[in-house]
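Trying the structure run again after the queue cleared.
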Amino acid sequence: MFGVVIIKKKKILCLGTSLILICSNLGTLLTYAEGFEDSSSDTSISSDVEVSTDTSTEFVDTEPQTEPQTEPEPNPEPEPEPEPDPEPEPDVQVEETTVEETTVEETTTTQEIQEAAFMYTLSNNEVVLVSCKTPALEVIDIPELIDGYPVTTISEDVFTECYNAVQINIPYSIKTISEGAFKMCTNLQYIGVATENTHYKSSNGVLYSFDGASIIAYPSDKPDDTYTIAETVMYIGTACFNNCINLESVVLPSELSVIGYSAFNGCINLKELTVNNNVQLSQTMFENCPLEKIYGYENSNAEAFANMYEIEFESIGVLETTEPTTETTIEETTVTETVTTVETTPVESQSVVYYAPERENMDSTEKIVIVIIIVAMVSLVVAIASKSHKNNDEDEDEEDDDDDEDIEDLDEDDDDFPDDD
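Done. Tokens:
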């Protein structure tokens, strides 16, 4: 019986010791719970602590007090301070700066491409373009300078392989463009010229000389089907309208005097031609052109050309004579005077026919010049005559002297022979 009581007392003692250890470490547990529990939970924990304290007190009175082993309290880890948010960079300024840099880069790249797009030679420190090395470009801006030298001349074969070129811009520095320079640009629609250029100009994309007297090149792929050449044009350049497949009708100006070789070659849809003067036409100008009708003047070269190649001809009027009015008036006057003179005296009629028209209002200077010329001619004739007469006299004197010598010789011979008596 006593043993059982002792065993029970030992169990109670163990339980009490455990409670005391729990109570002694309760403060540490509460420290960890402060940051995670709300105020209500703090209140409930404090009440539990009081009850536990009372209980521990009762056990202390009954059992000998034992010092609990305290564990070192762990230092709470410091919470990391929140990093401050970085200040936002101004987006607008960054975008503007980027755009400006991109624009500069593109401009520089384009300029370098245009300068490197051509092969050239130098003549008197001026650039002569020979060929284009970038035929894939659609817009070709001919540079004003290449390697510091001014670009002044475009040779004939520069754009031979530029089939993709839609627009070609000519700078102010260009002075010479060879005929037929654009004839192989089959997709060309516009030729531009700088306003400062004093040798060439552009009229609605068509290249003219600056004075308008010559038309140099018409873009091959220009969409217009009818074109009237400016009235100031007197010359159409070689291969000017080469391969202009959209043209169906062309009107030539009245001042036109010369059409270059193969001017309309390859205009496969050109059917009508209007000729406003007596300009000479030939088959080499209109190779591969299916002309169906020509408008022109009667008895003109245009009518003769149409008849030769069996092309329909429609008259726009009678060609006026180009003989000067003064010559016609002189001829009529001469005929009238001749008829009148024949009725009176034939001799006078002959003199009238050979008379030259009298000059009116001859000034004194002209008279003096004529008199001087006449006097000089007379003097020259007299001098020549006198010289020839003098030479004749000398010849006669020499002949007389020879005759005298012959006579003397004969006399001497006679004296040498003795008389028969």
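The first strand starts at residue 118 and ends at 123. Worth checking whether this holds up in the mutant runs.
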